[in-house]
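Researcher: Go.
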Amino acid sequence: MLWKPHEYQTKAIKFLLENGSGQLWLSPGLGKTAITLETIKLLIEANAVKKVLVIAPLRPCYAVWPDEIQKWDNFKDITCSVLHGPQKDKKIHDKATIHVVNFDGLAWLSNTFRRLGVKLPYDMLIVDEISYLKNTRTQRFKSLSPLLDHFPRRIGLTGSPASNGLMDIFGPQLVIDRGATFGKYVTHFRANYFYPSGYGGYTWALQTGAEERIYEALADKVLRMSAEDYLELPELITNKVYVDLPPEAFKKYKELEDKLLLDIESGQVTASTAAVAIGKCQQISNGAVYLDGSEREVQHIHDAKLEAVIDIVEELSGQPCLIGYHFKHDLDRLKKAFPSAPVIGSGVSGDKLTKIINVWNEGKTPVLLAHPQSAGHGLNLQGAGHAVIWFSNTWSLEIYEQFVRRLYRQGQRNNIIIHQIIGRKTIDEAIIKAIEGKDKTQQSLMNAVKAYAKEK
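Model: Structure:
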């Protein structure tokens, strides 16, 4: 097929060509990969670029970049190698136009070229999901940082630039312009735009007018586009499915929740420690709980949520549905209910992942089980399914939106129905409110839990 860019995609290509280095903050479904490939093609034709390094999460390395190149006739002259697995030491010497490496492979890449004593062969860097580099203290950031000056052109791609607030944008922008916008030190960035607040002063809040100043500083360095503004998408419908925990299960749940709410009310917990307790409450609401804090010993408590999921799947009568789970014991019980359902989760990548996606998009998979963080970036699942079931709800707006947008994106022909399985009078209700509040910071969970406690 021939890829014909929409007007907004042409605008994005022009932005990348004119700026040399910059970021595309585009909602999932707007075609970030194709936009970038067209830009690479034009730069190669102009003899401005010869070889490109793409850094991406592992699943997009295998399931997005090679597939997008093969999909469109426009990119038939672009070759691609994935630098992962046992053959990566050989592939690093091949003549492919694009080398794709995952974030965890950055240390290996850096060490390999240092050991060989040769200059990096790339003249353009693409960081897909650049928000993975928001923390400048991580090993992946430290591995990449010494290499950045070797790239005349640096492009960042993401649909979630500030998943935990605007503090997240410092690291990615440092990758793009080496400190030209916000300086080279996160401490200076904090001092210029934030002030310490919250318990112990460990939470950073925006200064008055800081958000506007940040976006003004990024005005000519970032292109922001929302799917709602540029695509005619089908309707997104939310169906809240409330389930009652059995009396004995609810009694166990109440004991744990009452202690949590009392600790929050007395100020004895921080957001991070409360999140652990909230996770425990959520497990019981889901139907099982880890007994020792690990994933070894699990106590089964009830099947109220599982039965609700089974009912929805039966109502769909074979129409493909995507089911999101969080805990391993969630997956274990779902697999017993749907033994033939494929799983996108930890350790699923490469050819196995590609096969799962292809069969799903052909409409041959009635049920697909997926961990939202494993299937939340880069996967195109809009080919057949239009139902999402949240067996285990998430408070993270970024994870929620990314997971739903695997189906709710360009190419989807049907209305999307999101079924949220909610334990009545449980922490699930607060988690759903955190999502509905559209707040991308972890504090939103604490705020929602406090409101939930007050209502009770």
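Model: The CA atoms of residues 323 and 389 lie 5 Å apart.
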